Amino acid sequence: MSEETKKELERLMLKYRAALKTLETQISILIQDFEQKNNYNPVEHVKSRIKKLESAENKLISRNYEVTIKNIEKHVHDMVGVRIVCAFLSDVYKIIEMIENSETIEVYAKKDYISHPKESGYSSYHLLVYVPVYLLDGKVMIEAEIQIRTLAMDFWASLDHKIRYKFAGAVPKEVKDNMYKCAIDINDLDHKMLILNDRMQVYKEDQENEEHS
């Protein structure tokens, strides 16, 4: 790698790190603001990362793009990634609405894998966004991906990733079929827990009304 290419890469990684910090800070503020106003935190945990260069290069190769710094910036849209995990399905949509209404984070595309899961059974909601980064040369908008999902969805996705990692080639059909069935079961569980949570909320409101009557 030439010195010029190294400097170009360092410059790009600086932008990604700055975008991630901005995204983490803004999401944290939005969650705290929501909790203060509603006396309820819809988020279980938040994870963030910058994609490894090796993963970015593999992504370019799989899509028949030349491995260059410019192509990483142009074609790898999830170099900056944040995952927000919620307890209940309804919370996922609260977070989506919260981010869409943000004046800092600009949503430019959505991928609803909850209403339309992937063939594997993968379920999550993805927002592709632009994040402002202020440098000496001025403001630049950096792409990032935000994934919002439930604990159950995150559990399935984590195990699916580990299983696929064990197989260098294609995952055996029996394994894929069983993972898909597990995804269906997890989807059912999410809806059952949502109904249970709604019922608990009604009980809570009834109890509070009785105490104040």
Summed up, what is this model?
This protein has 213 residues and is α+β, with helices and mostly antiparallel strands. The protein has six helices and five strands; from the N terminus they run αβααβαβββαα. The protein has helices at 3-38, 53-62, 69-75, 89-100, 151-166, 173-212; strands at 43-50, 80-86, 106-112, 125-135, 138-150.
Task: Give a written overview of the molecule.
The chain has one domain (3-154): Beta Polymerase, domain 2 (2-Layer Sandwich), CATH 3.30.460.10. It contains 6 helices and 5 strands; from the N terminus they run H-E-H-H-E-H-E-E-E-H-H. The protein has helices spanning 3-38, 53-62, 69-75, 89-100, 151-166, 173-212; strands spanning 43-50, 80-86, 106-112, 125-135, 138-150. It has a 5-stranded mixed beta sheet with strand order 1-2-5-4-3. The longest helix is centred in the C-terminal third of the chain and has 40 residues, at 173-212. It is flat and about 75 Å long. The termini are far apart.
